[in-house]
Fold Putative ATPase.
Amino acid sequence: MQVRQAAAGVQARQAAAAVQARQAAAAVQARQAAAGVQVQHPAAAVQVHPADGPPPVHQAAAAVQVQQPAAGVRRKRRRGPRGVNRWRDVRRKPGARGRRVPDHGRMSANPHDALPIRLNVDDSDSPSDVVDALFLGRFATGEQPYSHAANIDRVRSGATLLPPGARVLRAARDDDRSATLAEGDGWTVLISRWNRGADVTVTATSEELAARVLGEATDGAADEPEPQPENVTMGFWYVSPRRGPHRTTRQISAGTWDEVRANYTAPVADAMDRLMKTTPEDIAGRLLLLHGPPGTGKTSALRTLARSWRDWCQVDCVLDPERLFSDVGYLMDIAIGEEDGTGKGRWRLLLLEDCDELIRGEAKHTAGQALSRLLNLTDGLLGQGRNVLVGVTTNEDLERLHPAVVRPGRCLARIEVGPLTRREAVNWLGTEEGVGREGATLAELYALKRGTSPTSLPEPRDGADAGLYL
């Protein structure tokens, strides 16, 4: 009996001690909630400050606050609209029966308060990458909420692109790129340069100030050489690891059709005569197909076509066509483009060179959806309302091309570019020496004209199989 009474006494004292501990903890939490004390995560609030000088750009990008709920606050989950899970803080506030009242705080007018900026930098980032990130600080915090940008394909030699009164904060130079960060009264500018081109971006406290500073930075900076009659502007599309889909332009030399007509055999020249004289009113199909053996002058014909059509059509060459039709975003950037007043009504010709895998008969199996997207661009929903033509060159024979590519009505022109006959080749070269009975391609004729023999491969032996080793 005495043992049981002693045990009961111990249990009673333990229960009383537990109650006192809970009451003490509740009192501490209540005092912290009343005082507005917040518990901060140990890994939060890592801030980087310069050793001297003002913190002009990067504090907002380098400091991230990750705070846990205040003491005395519990996280309560509730179901939002359309099944979205949302969280709210429920605080104990003075009221009848001590009910918990939801704290419906309003979002700050500054978006940065709702979405802090976090910058992670490791040894894979270059100084230019850091400069790019630091530039976003004042724009992200809302200190300079307006931005204007410009792209210059060819920068004049000696142009710094710095606005008057600019103070350089950071400058980084890589092998093929440089980045300069500068500031002025109420504005910040980032100048990214590569080869001959540059991107200039300005953030400022007002839209008018951003536009004015950008104009001062780029005024007279573009290198505009004197136009040459034999030159034509051609665009080149590619996906850049740094900037994604990107277009650059350059001047290329192209002869007139009368100057190069003798480079093609008679049936090809007759078909090209009609193609060179095409106008927007003559366009029926949207696909231009040039096929034939290598060295017959398909690319040269396209350069001349760009010169013949330059009054109404902009010619762009896609340097990575295999990626174009496998990347929907890349395709949309090129096909849709941007509507600006300068190019309204102007046609575009996209050139895809050596696309054998894309349009041969087994393309649906080897290239997946690439062929379907190509055809959709020419006469499907994607191409509707867009003045876009697609020019494709291939070394494949006509019999090996996919039937959907060569069906009637789809092609604006379908021209097989073959070698010149023996008579045509002799007339072109001025001598019979080196010209075979089957004639010669344009590349072979140029090699003979330079005094070098055309490079040829030995004929394969009967029964010899080519093998691939993995």
About this structure: Residues 171 and 368 are 45 Å apart (CA to CA). The chain has a mean pLDDT of 76. The first strand starts at residue 73 and ends at 79.
